[in-house]
């Protein structure tokens, strides 16, 4: 029941960046902050940017001005998807990296360590429920399905809306455990 409550709360959160850009001050959801330092995010190749996650814990507000306590580091980021690239709210593929630019496996928001992540925009699902609910139902049946968490995204100090941070599906002992 706790999952469904979180899904419904996120579904009613602010998710249209242009309208609410000036009013976003804090949220119960973790806040992902991306600082491109002027770089343009494109579809291939990934560009290096700075990313931080603010997660002050359950029942605590998270503001984009709070310290980055959930993650701080360099990531490679690119626009993700095919037909979804034409939507105004872009989704992103993210790869956590070390100082040399190599993949660096990290745990984000309690997920198992890995380097590849997705910030899913779900632009065509205005409820923001469809993917997380389907994955949750699969996990309840004992199957692997991508783990998800709702987050607020701020890019270059501009609020982008509610996104879903999720694992990128790939072979890994903590994800799809096949040889």
Structure characterization notes:
- The protein is about 15% helix and about 30% strand.
- It is built from 3 helices and 7 strands, in the order ααβββββαββ.
- Strands 1-2-3-4-5-7-6 form a 7-stranded mixed barrel.
- It is globular.
The termini sit apart by: 35 Å
**What strand order characterises the main sheet?**
1-2-3-4-5-7-6
What is the arithmetic mean of pLDDT? 86
* Portion in beta strands: 25-35%
Which blocks of ≥5 consecutive residues have pLDDT under 50?
7-21
Radius of gyration: 16 Å
H/E element order:
HHEEEEEHEE
Helix content: 10-25%
**Main structural class:** alpha+beta
Question: Biggest β-sheet: count, sense, barrel?
Answer: 7 strands, mixed, barrel
Number of helices: 3
Inertia-based shape? globular
- Strands, count: 7
């Amino acid at each position: 029941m706790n999952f469904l409550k979180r899904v419904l709360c996120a579904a009613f959160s602010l998710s249209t960046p242009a309208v609410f850009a000036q009013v976003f001050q804090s949220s119960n959801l973790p806040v992902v902050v991306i600082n491109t330092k002027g770089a343009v995010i494109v579809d291939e190749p990934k560009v290096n940017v700075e990313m931080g996650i603010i997660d002050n814990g359950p029942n605590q507000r998270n503001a984009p001005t709070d310290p980055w306590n959930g993650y701080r580091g360099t990531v490679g980021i690119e626009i993700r998807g095919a037909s979804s690239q034409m939507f105004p709210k872009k989704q992103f593929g993210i790869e956590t990296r070390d100082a040399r630019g190599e993949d660096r496996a990290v745990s984000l928001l309690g997920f198992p360590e890995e380097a590849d992540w997705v910030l899913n925009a779900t632009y065509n699902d205005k409820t923001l429920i469809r993917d997380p609910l389907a994955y949750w139902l699969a996990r309840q049946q004992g199957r692997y399905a991508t783990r998800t968490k709702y987050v607020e995204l701020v890019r270059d100090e501009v609020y982008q809306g509610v996104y879903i941070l999720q694992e990128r599906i790939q072979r890994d002992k903590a994800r799809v455990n096949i040889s």
